[in-house]
Design brief:
- It is a single chain.
- This protein is mainly β.
- It is built from no helices and 23 strands.
- The strands form five sheets. An eight-stranded antiparallel sheet has the order 8-9-10-11-23-19-18-14, with no helix packed on it. The protein has a seven-stranded antiparallel sheet with strand order 5-13-21-20-17-15-16, with no helix packed on it.
- Strand 18 and strand 19 form a beta hairpin.
- The N and C termini lie far apart (43 Å).
């Protein structure tokens, strides 16, 4: 495992090859550093204790750990002890290899063959820091012998203060059913309508948002700081997660997740693959997300 620190002007970033994780992203405001992502408590943190982790070769879960595609039946094996599903791919659990580095950028990659998934692929990440923003790029190449449906995403943990607001317009909403799986498409509930700035509700949230605009604003009024998140057009959907003490007894309502994704959860079993991208052998899927902080005064 290697940990790399990047800095550009007031921004700083910490990256780990363990899981291809972010361990922290901060903005220096003169009197101290404001965390723009939830800082990890250890350089040896796993994905669930990180600031952000990659979703590759797709994100979320597949119902019953199985799907059929192009005349073939495929099955997954669980990759955690606490969930019966194969979850979020391998990127978040893999050891990535460092590539090119500069004081403001770093590249890393890993190759996967076999294991809990029928996928064979190579994944690549590039983190580039300027004085204004962080740009993250995630790429996957189909290294298998068959065409397969692929997807990409990120799982960032954002700090949540009592007055934090989120703006992230979307068109549709997916309910949640047993097993942390998506249920059905419906209208967006009032307390999860982020078409205008709104606080996160005081309850469990684990839902997909369809046709997300590709843009989100997070505001921390207590810190006079905001974050503008933009993603490439391929990231058409997003997931919002707010934990509770039933799932996590240590949850202190101090973070939430807003997860850009190229596809819908369980897309493998939807008629149109939930906008998963079919990659032929050797083809790639790639996209970027940008995080730009600024001062915010009401």
């Amino acid at each position: 495992m290697s940990v790399v620190n990047l800095a550009a002007g007031p921004l700083s970033l910490r990256v780990s090859t363990k899981g291809g994780l972010l361990l922290g992203f901060w903005r220096d405001v003169g009197i101290g550093k404001v965390p723009l992502l939830r800082p990890s408590q250890s350089e040896d943190a796993n994905a669930l204790g990180s600031s952000c982790y990659p979703l590759v070769p797709f994100g979320n879960r597949v119902k019953d750990n199985r799907f059929s595609f192009d005349g073939n039946d495929y099955q997954f094996r669980p990759n955690t002890e606490w969930d019966k599903h194969y979850l979020h791919g391998e990127g978040w659990q893999a050891e990535w290899s460092l590539g090119r580095q500069t004081p403001t950028s770093v590249e890393m990659s890993f190759t996967h063959r076999g294991g809990a998934t029928p996928y064979e692929y190579r994944a690549h990440q590039h983190f580039a820091l300027s004085e204004e923003r962080l740009t993250m790029t995630l790429t996957v190449e189909n290294r298998g012998e068959r065409a397969m449906p692929f997807g990409l995403g990120w799982h960032p943990y954002f700090p949540m203060t009592p007055n934090t607001t989120l703006l992230a317009p979307a068109r549709k909403f997916w309910t949640e059913v047993k097993g942390w799986l998506p249920g059905e498409q419906t209208e967006i509930p009032a307390d999860l309508d982020f078409s205008s700035p709104a606080k996160l509700p005081h309850r469990w949230v684990n839902n997909g948002f369809e046709d997300w605009s590709g843009e989100a604003f997070i505001v921390w009024p207590e810190w006079h700081t905001s974050l503008h998140l933009t993603a490439d057009a391929i990231f058409k959907h997003a997931f919002v997660f707010v934990s509770d003490t039933t799932f996590d007894p240590d949850f202190k309502r101090d973070y939430f997740c807003f997860e850009p994704m190229t596809h819908l959860a369980n897309g493998h079993n939807l008629p149109d693959l939930g906008e998963l991208k079919v990659l032929q052998p050797g083809e790639i899927l790639s996209g970027s997300m940008r995080l730009r902080p600024s001062s915010h005064w009401n």
